[in-house]
Amino acid sequence: MAAPEPVSWTILELLRWSAHYFQEKAVPEPRASAEVLLAHALNLSRLELYLRHDQPLTPEELARFKALVVRRRGGEPVAYITGHKEFWSLTFQVNPGVLIPRPETEFLVDGALQAAREPDFPQEGAWGLEVGVGSGAVVIALARELPRTGWVAVDISSQALAVAQENARRLGVAERIHFLQADLLAGLRPGPRFSLIVANLPYVTRAEWDSLPRNIREYEPKEALMGGEDGLDLLRPLARQAHDYLLPGGWLALEVGSGQASLISEVLRGTGAYARVEFIKDYLGIERVVRARRG
Hints:
alpha/beta; Helicase, Ruva Protein, domain 3; Rossmann fold; 2 domains; seven-stranded mixed beta sheet; two-stranded antiparallel sheet; 12 helices; elongated
């Protein structure tokens, strides 16, 4: 990664060079990658980079940043390099054992919060459940927004649960979230006890997997993305069973992939347990969340 050799590099000079370098190497979001990695190397915010644009880097700082650039050029996601990702205006620790939180998953959080504001939502002693907790982004965001609700957070991965527990501790909601290692609902006895159930389970189809960007296929955990032939290997059984765990008037909210909302809604309607089934579109117009109210 040859670069010009001035006597010293300022922050702005290095930002311009690294953004151009990433663009030449076809690295996604070259400018944002350069900003985030340089801010991380210097322990600054992205805004501070521009406020200190003429500040020269020490040789140690420059070496540290170049090492990060090499990792990014190789395809490693920025969030794994820095060890954190922003979601719902919160900072979550992440590592290769968990999926990196996506902006579209904020529609799941928002849809769940809308449901919790419904007039007949069962509020008294409310408990929520997240199935497939990953880094904890969804359940922690909801726990902070719904301070009177207790939560159960389930994941089959012990690595994911460890990350989620640490995030819950750091973000001040650990005392209201009970973490459980289990496969979907297998660790819970059926019974109407939850006001809200949310899930962002793997939904990438086998055909879609092969077309995913290299930085996703080679670095993020396949088991957190791949949902089988049609992407519904985990979503379908959860949709069939969730009503057995919901209180009357309680809500189920599921994140789904493109074209999957109608398939999941058929499963939900087939149970005969839901009075309402509706979709929420994301910023691309994709029906991203299926939300259903227990009758």
